[in-house]
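Review session, final week

We close the course with one last complete record, chosen because it touches almost every idea we covered. It is Beta-glucosidase, a protein from Bifidobacterium tsurumiense with 484 residues. Go through it on your own first, then we will talk.
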Amino acid sequence: MKRYEFLNRFIWGAATASYQVEGAIHEDGRTPSIWDTFCERPGVISDGSSGAEACDQYHRYAEDIELMKKLGIDAYRLSVAWPRIFPELGGKVNQKGVDYYLRLLDALRDADIKPVVTMYHWDLPQYLEDRGGWTNRDTSKRYADYAETLAKAFGDRVDIWTTFNEPWCSAYLGYGNGIHAPGIADYGKALDAVHHLNLAHGLGAQAVHGVLGDQANISVTLNLAVHIAQSDSEADIAAKRRADLISNEVFLGPMLEGRYDPEIFEVTAQDSDWSCIQESDLEIIHQPLHSLGLNYYATTHVQGLETPKQHTAAVWGENPVPAQEIVDVLPPEGELTAMGWNQEPEGLTNTLVELSKRFPDLPLMVTENGSAWDDDVSEGEAVSIEGANAESDIETHGKIVHDPKRVAYLNAHVGAVAKALQQGANVIGYFAWSLLDNFEWSFGYTKRFGIIRVDYDTQVRIWKDSGLRYREIVHDNAIELDEA
């Protein structure tokens, strides 16, 4: 084993999202989001739950900041619930909603924890969805107004402003195959949503810069799909190219290069004529960024098809993006997480290196990385907190979660970041997903990603070995690497 030490300015953080942790959906003027509405539909959430209470962070944020302090992290990635800020269409700013986030931001800064604020992590106000949501160009303009309001309200309390989290999910899962809110299955609408999300990103970045000037740090977080061709055959390489084009290039091209690859229009012609694109849109979308966020969990191995699939709803369920008829997604191999995802940390290394070669002047941040497992709580045992940072400030209350598989995943993927840095990748930070177990969208509370457990009956936070291990990594600012 060889020890790799990160640079002193490397950012260690943890991440959550408003609908997944806040709860308090009916308090202080907040109105319904598309996820509140979606969760009311029978059968769409595996356990029939919602984010109504979640982790109750709306009331327990001070307790959670204490956990962050004990972890020793530098930054907390959170998101703002749009319906807390603008509860009504065209209405006034809800000061109670603004005040909650001001309290949270001030408490973070008092704890010397940098707030990384995602302005949109999927909880669109339902009143905007009633007017077409992300299929309606007007939503992009409304988003710009919302972003301007946040910039005026929060000012220099925010270290990094992230316009969007995973617009891929908002477009393709929300409007393409409908397994996420708002639950629409129409790929023409999904492609309209792709462009309007891109447009909103650009308008939002302009709005924040317009209020705070060029010193405002703007980012966006993408869940770039890591497609791996099963072989060097022409068909398999073409399948990877097609999958990359529709999953990744529809966002990377406009946001970072100011262009859509013309092939995108060709292969999606049966779904859209892209008439949603107007003159000067691409100029607006292409805004300077402080950093690019990458959410990474697993890889997808693909091969070409001898006989292209038909463009049907059944195919959409397998490939939640259009124009994938020549792409065959292979079953994941090896030990799978509770989500059914594979573990291939090399994919993270390679993606970071490739992105840095393509965009050498753009710093990268791993804004989400983690794994879900079926955890068990060990009770009544004497818990020994060992390691380099073994002060007695962690209270386990005789309970702890031993999660060796999550610890192994964490070690491997932090190691993957270190290997990317060794190969010249411009990576400036890593955020564990997630600080807490939380509402995992269509899976409800059945999947646990947290490095700290939440007992949903009592809201008690329980440490996991993975949280203690992350604490060691942060304290040491280092990881042990296999020399091979």
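Two points worth writing down before the exam:
The chain is about 40% helix and 15% strand.
The chain has a mean pLDDT of 94.
Good luck, everyone.
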